Amino acid sequence: MSVPQEIEEGNTQIRSARLIVWCRWFYAPLIFLFAFFGKSDIGVLHALLILCGALIVVLLANAFFALYLQRNTSTAIDGKALTILSGIQIGSDVLFLFFIALFVGDNGNNVAALFFLLPIVISITVFDLGGALMVAMISGALFALSAFLRESPYLMLGAGDVIPLMTKELVAALARAGAVALFFLGMAFLGSRLFLFSRLRDKTLLEEITDVVHQLRTPLASIKWTLKYLLDGDGGGMNEEQRSLLTKSFALNEHAVSLVGEMLTIARLRSGKFVYHFVPVQFEKLIQEVIQDLLPIATAKRVRIEFHAPKDLPATWTMDPDKMRDVLQNLIDNGIKYSTEHGTVRVRANAQGRDLHLSVEDSGMGIPEKEKGKIFSQFFRAENAIATETEGSGLGLYIAHHVVARHNGKIWFESESGKGTIFHVILPSRQ
Amino acid sequence: MTNNPIKVLMIEDDKFLCDLAAKKFSKEGFHVLVAMEGRRGIELAEKELPDVVLIDILLPGLDGFEVLKRLRRNPSFDNTRLIVLSNYGQAEELEKARALGADQFLIKADFTLDDILDAIKKVLASPRKYFA
Fold it and tell me: Are the C-beta atoms of A323 and A276 separated by less than 8 Å?
């Protein structure tokens, strides 16, 4: 598991969410043990029960997070849900640490304060400056509350006595808590700034790389024109071997061109320059155009493409036509690529409630179980895919996921190894 | 069909591509003119009044957009098809080209010379849409 570099894309978010869940299995019990040995002797049993309870709750919550992230491997989880999940995780951590701080006194209390840096650092990577500051504030407030409860007689008596005794110790503890809270805010601010700075450096790097990738297109275009010129016989006749080699070169060059295109798309996606234009689109016509374009490839492989749509489908649907065209092209092309010879690719469109449901089904190799979770990752191609069809960059589904998410839709798949795969896309109606 | 061959002016600074395109287009029966720089391209256009002008975006001196703008401004070219060639293909470029009055926008890496020939024939076959 590697530490994520960017925030934006869903899969990096999922990976970082999983990383945090994994770490929590370790740090929660460790912190609990620390508190267990370091706790103040105030109503010992009371404290122990509450601490155990807090640990159990945190571990249960963590199990829930782990299951949630696991269950959704075949769906691309949307960014908003992940952000909410991260918020809940951070919230549960902060609450847990509140209880720890409540029961650990003296020098141990300083360490308990430092533990709050964990959720603060997590929030720096997940949220922006505002979010991180808010987490810092809540941590500071809860820490102050824990100090108040510790020092005031409340905890000792356990009774609902109304008047807190403003002892010297209490005032000192509260002052200290105030300092700690300021420390949290400072760390949140600094951390966010540092994080933003490193992201800015990444952004500049991205722009530099994009520039070079753009320039790649120039020689590739020239090569394309030259090879085609020769293949057309405009440079003179050639023998079978020459023709065959040039044909292969042309195909490889085309592959290079499409890779460059995909790299540029990714770069635009990451730099936030992907502009969407939502307009009413005659999507049935769009689907048929895409099928038409891919027909030569399908016929070469003796794969049939069918398109099914009920008559009562709405005439238009609001979407970004160019982006959705790319998505459909990718799904249908994949269907053809990974279908068995004489197989069929079925494209379906129907309306389900207020949503448009598109699906592309192939009769191909299917996606192996252990690779299902990674399908939407950048550059990922399942092993059996690479074995069958070495040319394919694996970027298409990654982009497709991004496009569909931007439409507030969902994209997922069902697959059985050896039987075939169905990709589903849901586009809610946009008003 | 016609004794007047189609006149194509290509404004492109890459000599290699120019020569290749010129050879291809001549074989197709087009009358090909070539300029490797923006200002020269405009001069040639005004002198020869081509049917189609292929303009590369990246040009030394006057860039492709400027050439496009100046040609479109000139009423002598109201019927001339202006096709922009680019290697970048960013949406902003496309928009700008369209706004400046280009009839077509082609990314060089995505099209072969044959495709460009087809595009030229296609764009000549349909009447120009006039924008204010």
Answer: yes
